[in-house]
Amino acid sequence: MIRTATLTAALACLCSGTHLLAQDTTPPPAAPAAATAEKAAFAFKDGDRLVLIGNTVIEREQRYATLEPRLALALGETKVTIRNLAWSGDTVYGHARSYFGPPEEGLERMAKHLELLKPTVVLLCYGSEMAFEGLSDLPRFLTGYRNLLALIRKQAPGVRVIIATPPPLENLPPPMPDLTDANKNLSSFRDALRKFAGSQNTYFVDWFELMGGMPKPGQTAKPLTENGVHYTREGYQKLSTKLVQGLGLTPPQISEAELGGLQKEVLKKDELFFNRWRPQNETYLFGFRKHEQGQNAKEIPMFDPLIDQADAKIQELKAELLSNKKTL
């Protein structure tokens, strides 16, 4: 049988509290009026280019195409294009996207992609490793996050930034480990990240709380993850709905069947873009073996018009859905 400690470590590799209080029957003090005021919606502008940056939970969204259709419809006539630059297992230091070199190489690669894309809005989600590593490295992490924000703002002057917390983990039946302590770490990390986001002039989305916050003791009755960490299709449907709500927008009242055509086109666009910015044979095209196949690098920009065509189709399908809703 696999030991729980070993499995916990494995999940930490795959993935990349409000502190537990003693029982107290004394009611909490009333929050000040300013704290209870409704949060203003994030101000998207027509023509915005939103770039998603983060680790596993963001990258895997392109498997299901649940966010872009919901956000597009929630924005109504406002047109926003979306590009997913997330990388599973990545950190604010650029570890995963560094390939064979140091983390700095990963940040350099990100800088080049940002220069190419010229985003007007960036949504970041980092820090899921804190669930397993604890918060002892939090000061260094926040310094790394601050440096990452500086890099993004240098490459995309005037960019507006959204920082989202990692969502909670789930307790599943054995042999999956108990992730209660990991969620306590995420809850405390969320509190620190909220303060950090405020100090960096960014829009903060508490994805942890929107997805239910600190889970109740015991095993999850209706799992939305495969293994406690990685969300399923149904999980991403909820993740995306809650993220749209966290941006102060109203998710569309529309069935999955009605979203089907739009999701299909988003999946197509996301695959084209993935092959554009992250080709499988990048070492041969641009790296130390480009002397073998570097002549084929000229084909990579040929994805751009195909991506633009997919964007246009997405906007066309969105307009049809909005028109149909108005006539009902």
Briefly characterize the structure.
It is built from 14 helices and 5 strands. It is α/β, with parallel strands linked by helices. The chain has a domain at 40-268: Rossmann fold (3-Layer(aba) Sandwich), CATH 3.40.50.
Description:
By secondary structure, the protein is α/β, with parallel strands linked by helices. The chain has a domain at 40-268: SGNH hydrolase (Rossmann fold, 3-Layer(aba) Sandwich), CATH 3.40.50. The protein contains 14 helices and five strands. It has a five-stranded parallel sheet with strand order 2-1-3-4-5. Helix 4 (67-74) packs parallel to helix 10 and helix 11 (256-277) runs antiparallel to helix 14. It is globular, with a radius of gyration of 21 Å.
Fourth CATH level, the homologous superfamily of the domain at 40-268: SGNH hydrolase
Distance between the termini: 57 Å
Largest sheet: 5 strands, parallel
> Which regions have little confidence, pLDDT < 50, spanning 5+ residues?
1-37
Averaging pLDDT over every residue, what do you get?
86
- The beta-strand count equals 5
Indicate the structural class.
alpha/beta
By CATH, the architecture of the domain at 40-268 is named: 3-Layer(aba) Sandwich
- Work out the helicity level: 40-55%
Question: Which CATH class of the domain at 40-268 is shown?
Answer: Alpha Beta
